[in-house]
Amino acid sequence: MKDKAVLIISLDFELYWGVSDKVKLEDKQQYFQNTRKTIPALLNLFNQNQVHVTWATVGMLFATSWKEWYQFMPKEKPNYNNANLSSYAVEAKYNNANHLEPFLFAPDIVDLINETPNQEVATHTFCHYYCKESGQTISQFRSDLQAAKIIAAQKNISLHSLVFPRNQYNESYLKVCAEEGITSVRSNPQDWFWRDTENEVLINKIFRTGDSYIQLGKQTSFKLSSLDLKDGLPLSIPASRFLRPVGNKAYLNKLRLRRIIAEMTAAAERQECYHLWWHPHNFGDYPEESMNDLQHIVEHFKRLQHKYGMISMTMQEVDNYIKDNNKHDKAL
């Protein structure tokens, strides 16, 4: 297989469903309003520069209203020991708050993503499902994934890639993913501080944060030929770097951006893949500054494209490339 320099971008599109156990929606209205306004700008930037992006989208965002939300609810819901984790608790709090519905339902944005060239609508499960939390079962996960597929099908969207919410990558659930039509998933970096993400251990969080500014972990890029296509399972595509949100300390913002630029350059020089990810709502506090940073990243990608032949791929395109090359190699 011929290795290529590749930029992979995957976004965890979830709006309030991804943080419903952590913050009150009424306190974050401006934050999510900024997010909604920023997404068309993101899509425009990607389209102008032919950047291919995977949008791992929470299935609940496809719904137009609480009524439709009920219609597509899975047969089995996750039975977490910690009931506060369940997205289904949101309905009791906000089912009469019509002014907050744009932060819970976003079929208009899903349509916009789907209509933009080179953008893959993928799944972040139906309910932002936590695959390593105590109490939930593999049967409940399957039911959730089926609900995500059904609501996406209403828009003639087939789901092929999946990102596990909160990075709770669960190898024992990969078979179910494959059986439900998922061909690629995002896996975590190999560093020890990315293991057991369901446990918010302070030392892990410190190292994950610190590694965004200075090198504390392993090399972040990888070769396409290193990806192991196991029979009957989705392709696991490792994440390289989380684009940490802009903060109020300018020097830290510069450090994190400089680190990403340097890692992209190293990946291009070695003809390797660099997999960048974030949540669109990470742009909610500082939308203008966040877009400026992304503009720098995209401009640098274009320079690397010119100098090293770096290309942009969605997760599905990576999977297709590897499968096509494996077939070609076997035919020789």
Distance between the termini: 12 Å
Q: How can the largest sheet be summarized?
A: 6 strands, parallel
Reported by name, the CATH topology is TIM Barrel
Q: In oligomeric terms, what are we looking at?
A: single chain
> Low-confidence parts lasting 5 or more residues at pLDDT below 50?
none
How does CATH name the architecture? Answer: Alpha-Beta Barrel
Number of domains: 1
CATH C-level category: Alpha Beta
Shape: globular
Mean pLDDT: 93
Kindly report the name of the CATH homologous superfamily.
Answer: Glycoside hydrolase/deacetylase
Helix fraction? 25-40%
User: Roughly what fraction of the amino acids lie in strands?
Assistant: 5-15%
Q: Tally the helices: what do you get?
A: 10
Overview of this protein structure:
- With 332 residues, the protein is an alpha/beta fold.
- It has one domain: TIM Barrel (Alpha-Beta Barrel), CATH 3.20.20.370.
- The protein has ten helices and nine strands.
- The strands form two sheets. Strands 1, 2, 3, 7, 8 and 9 form a six-stranded parallel beta sheet that branches.
- 41% of the residues are buried.
- The model has no long low-confidence stretch (mean pLDDT 93).
Short description:
By secondary structure, this protein is α/β, with parallel strands linked by helices. Helix content is 39%, strand content 12%.
Spell out the blueprint of helices and strands:
Blueprint: E1 6-13, H1 29-48, E2 53-57, H2 66-71, H3 90-94, H4 107-115, E3 119-123, H5 138-153, E4 161-163, H6 174-179, E5 184-187, H7 202-210, E6 235-238, E7 241-242, H8 250-269, E8 273-278, H9 287-308, E9 311-313, H10 315-331
Parallel strand pairs: 1-2, 1-8, 1-9, 2-3, 4-5, 5-6, 7-8
Helix pairs in contact: 1-9, 8-9
